[in-house]
């Protein structure tokens, strides 16, 4: 299956379970792979036939900037649902990294895979 991807999308967000984390914004990094048949836009060479990665990125940035969740799990789930619902994506893999959250680790976070119509 083909994919459209967004890699290393960095967005500052209010996220975390500790008191200090409710007062500052922290960088999050998203890697998103979205299943999409590349042959359709390749046949027409028309942006209207693509899954437009710029449009998806702009929507994710706006959502994450306005969010205030405690856990990265919650945010990852909501962003995945948003992409599946609003962009008609059938399946995706989303990695949400929180760099600097754990001393000694480059990043910590979650990786989820979700499909449209799944529980
Ligand atoms: N599985 C998770 N573990 C932790 C989370 C989280 O969102 N999911 N969050 C924290 C703190 O907010 C941490 O990032 C602060 O450094 C701890 N563990």
Automatic annotation (TrEMBL):
CDD domains: DHNA_DHNTPE. Keywords: Folate biosynthesis, Isomerase, Lyase. One of its GO terms (molecular function) is dihydroneopterin aldolase activity. SUPFAM superfamilies: Tetrahydrobiopterin biosynthesis enzymes-like (SSF55620). Pfam families: FolB. Residues 4-114 form the Dihydroneopterin aldolase/epimerase domain. Pathway: Cofactor biosynthesis; tetrahydrofolate biosynthesis; 2-amino-4-hydroxy-6-hydroxymethyl-7,8-dihydropteridine diphosphate from 7,8-dihydroneopterin triphosphate: step 3/4. One of its GO terms (biological process) is folic acid biosynthetic process. Its EC number is 4.1.2.25. It catalyses: 7,8-dihydroneopterin = 6-hydroxymethyl-7,8-dihydropterin + glycolaldehyde; 7,8-dihydroneopterin = 7,8-dihydromonapterin. One of its GO terms (cellular component) is cytoplasm. InterPro entries: Dihydroneopterin_aldolase, FolB_dom, GTP-CH-I_C/QueF. Catalyzes the conversion of 7,8-dihydroneopterin to 6-hydroxymethyl-7,8-dihydropterin. Belongs to the DHNA family. This is 7,8-dihydroneopterin aldolase. It comes from Marilutibacter penaei. The lineage of its organism: Bacteria, Pseudomonadati, Pseudomonadota, Gammaproteobacteria, Lysobacterales. The gene is folB.
